[in-house]
Design brief:
By secondary structure, the chain is of the alpha/beta class. The protein has four domains: about 5-150, DNA polymerase beta, N-terminal domain-like (DNA polymerase, domain 1), CATH 1.10.150; about 155-245, Beta Polymerase, domain 2 (2-Layer Sandwich), CATH 3.30.460.10; about 255-340, Beta Polymerase, domain 3 (2-Layer Sandwich); about 345-585, Metal-dependent hydrolases (TIM Barrel, Alpha-Beta Barrel). It is about 45% helix and about 10% strand. The protein contains 24 helices and 17 strands. Helix 1 runs antiparallel to helix 2 (about 25-40), helix 8 packs across helix 9 (about 135-155) and helix 20 packs parallel to helix 21. The longest helix has 18 residues, at about 5-20. About 40% of the residues are buried.
Amino acid sequence: MTKNEIADVLGEIGVLLELKGENPFKIRAYQSGAKALEAIEEAELARLISEEKLGTVKGFGDALVQKVRELHTTGRLEFFEKLKASIEPGLVELLQIPGLGPKKIKGLHDKLGIASIAALNEACVAGRVAELEGFGEKTQEKLLVGIKNREAYGRRHLWWDAREVAELIVAGLRALKSVTRAEAAGSLRRGLETVGDLDFIVAATEVGPVVGWFTTMAGVKEVTAKGETKASVRFESGLQADLRIVPEDQFVFALHHFTGSKDHNVQMRQRALARGLSLSEWGLVPAEGEGTAKIKAEDKRLRTQATTEAELFAALGLGFIAPELREGLGEIEAAEAGELPRLIEAKDLRGAFHNHTTASDGRNTLNEMTAAAEALGWEYLGIADHSKSSYQANGLSEERLLAQIDEIKALNESKRFKTRVFAGTECDILTDGRLDYEDALLEKLDYVVVSVHNAFTQDEATMTARIIRAIEHPRTTMLGHLTGRLLLRRDGYQVNAGRIIDAAIANSVAIELNASPWRLDMDWRHWRKAAERGLLCAINPDAHETAGLEHVRAGINAARKGWLTKDQVITTRSLSEIVTWLRARRAK
């Protein structure tokens, strides 16, 4: 196990012990151990364990050392497995409701016998939760809202999570001897931020083995449908996957149809009809054939032949439309006029800003983050740890930020890495729009990301004015996560996006497309028009660990859906170009 995976286990042990009402000192030992572990570099941890010196590190007693060693060596921990088995599953599930921590869950269980979300909902509706000490009417109302949101959110899944499942399935399908082509379709292929279910289109010479493999995949909890050419399964996570097997000559048409969106497909069918053709999942045929369920084998000559989607679009007088653009939002008109943009690609990125280290709430050190960026081939990496007002994220005091600036300077001068590190901050926008640090300190930084982290309930006018004041600050380089939303967890705060965009353009401030799969904020629906007016985008992963740097892939999806090109994204600029841009920003 890696150090972060071990830290996750220690943190979860702390939560489970708190649910059981264990000694607070014992709980704190695991929590502190998890945090201390994150501050140790991976190679150093391996050395300390092999030399049996982990116990010399502050916070690691004999019991904790033994558990870390067991996890690091074997990848499992018997103590953890037994602890999990001793906790009612429903209690852990309650942690998914905003506002409920281990202490409150234990109180609900002890006093009202609540051990599931359903039981919590029933108790809230009956008003019993409000009567408990430490809860009250407002808390009860918030819990009911949280339960309702969870039910709504529970029907969808993050694109990032769905992608991991889909890639394994596509690889498995393609490995089958009878399969000639296999692709994921639906909202996943279009790059939507959340996915309802997975769709797979397969061309195969034999259907039986394909259906058999699909319905017996690892992780399948339930087979919800099984036919000759179709099957549906549901995984433990609740994610559903649908399989459709078609003949080779229908594959492209089925892939286009089941990729969608509905609006895109309707417009494409209308375009086909205007040309005397009928477009469906089975093919492109003369319109008089419309209504026929399928083109019979002897009538294949009637079907337009297409081995790629580009050929399908060309048959209707259109350039190829990337899946991400197929939302019925003008992409067909642009394709007809030859005005589709050359969308940004993952290979265009040269670096990213807004990344965290163990100095605040990150899980990897400055050196580890830089090494990971170098491994990705990035020319530069921006470090933007939290500012002092973000107490919950171990925000940096003025003294600690100055020390980090010196540390970054020394790292760059050492030439240890090819990747250049820029010293920045994710500076809190205070409730009145002021920034969390004084100007004299901000001037020592290479760049400044400004973000809202508190007072989310301010009304739209107040929040908008607050953010605009921060954008107008001369040291502000870019605005972080515009609405503060957490996908499938909480909605963003109320803000007038149009006015924020206007202010950013007027002040030459970039707006971040936060690539964290939980954020993808600013939403892709705003980017096309904003970028056409000159707004610059910064695709930032908001990485809190080395693996988080790879979240830029989700940001690329969102950028492509927003019709963004390479030139509209500053993080595609070379190191020398970025240095020039940052210097110009500081000199304004």
